[in-house]
Structure formats: C-alpha cells, structure tokens
C-alpha cells in the first residue's frame, strides 16, 4: 500500500489541527462544595464599629473556562441563601428572614456571567449578573485563575450595595458589602 507524500502531509496537518483544537477548547468544571465558599464582610455600627463576617458554603454550578478562549468561557454559580453562617445563630436567622434575604421565598443567590475579559495580566474580569431576592443587577468581579490538579482555583472579590437588592434598610449597618469568592473546581 502506497501513501502519497501529499496524502501523508494532509493527514499530518489534520492531526495537528485536531491536537491544537483540544488545546484551546474551553473545558467544563464544577466547584467542589467542601472547598469552595463565598464570604461576605460588612460593618455594623451598633455598639461601635464592628466587622461582621459570614459564609455561604456549598457553592454549586457550572463553569466553562479556558484563558486562551475567554469568549467561550462562562460562569453560572449559586449558593443557598439559608446556608449562611456568621457564627451567631440568632444573627443567621435574622439575615435569612424576610427583612434581609427572604431565604424561604428566594432560596438561591446566583451569579451568571455575560462575558469574561482580561486586563492583560493574570487578572480576569467576570461581567455578569447577580441575583438576590429575585432582583438582578450587573456586577463585575475581578478574579484570578490558578491551575489546580484537574481543575482551577478561582479567587475574586467585589462590592455590592445591599440596598439595590432590598436587603435590609438604611440603618445601623453599611450599605456596601464586600464579597470574596473562592472556587476550587474539578473537570467535569
């Protein structure tokens, strides 16, 4: 069986293109619930200036990410509003109540990307929508993506004006909440 040089060259080019396409295809990842978290920090002015920290464990969702193909990358993640923990069960119940998160009526807090861009360094920006209590507003989240085993470690932070989402009222706590997100993911 004779194979022409032209045929062998075409086959080689085809195989090279296939290999390269695997290299730049965005891959699917899921957060590992036990190693991922959303932390928030807010100041209360009752009894002085006190920092309150809280966690939303158990992030779930889908992530498609390839730093070389950001136009095909996306994040669609959520936490359960009732999962909040601040190390104070009375405060947790208050935050879950209708006055703040209305966790019974709006069980999920979601972030869904519209696009992902880069600042030209190792920092990426998720341009997306944050939904709290059924209210969706645009948000930009700066984050880093570090390869980690068969996934990535995504770390980012942003600020949210809680009043835009009808979370509480003006009063003894700051309007601005600082949110830190840490996602450890595995390939799906």
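^ Assign residues to that structure.
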């Amino acid at each position: 069986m004779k194979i022409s040089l032209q045929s062998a060259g075409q086959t080689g080019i085809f195989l090279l293109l296939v290999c390269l396409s695997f290299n730049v295809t965005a891959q699917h990842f899921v957060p590992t619930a036990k190693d991922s978290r959303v932390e928030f920090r807010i100041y209360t002015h009752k009894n002085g200036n006190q920092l309150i920290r809280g966690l939303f464990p158990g992030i779930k969702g889908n992530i498609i990410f390839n730093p070389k193909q950001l136009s095909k990358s996306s994040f669609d993640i959520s936490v359960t509003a009732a999962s909040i923990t601040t190390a104070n069960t009375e405060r947790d119940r208050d935050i879950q109540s209708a006055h703040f998160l209305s966790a019974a009526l709006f069980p999920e807090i979601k972030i869904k990307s519209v696009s992902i861009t880069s600042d030209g360094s190792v920092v990426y920006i998720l341009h997306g929508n944050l939904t709290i209590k059924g209210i969706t507003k645009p948000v930009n989240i700066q984050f880093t993506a570090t390869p980690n085993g068969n996934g990535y470690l995504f770390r980012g932070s942003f600020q949210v004006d809680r009043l835009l989402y009808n979370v509480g009222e003006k009063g003894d706590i700051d309007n601005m909440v600082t949110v830190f997100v840490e996602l450890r993911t595995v390939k799906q």
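The longest helix spans residues 5-24.
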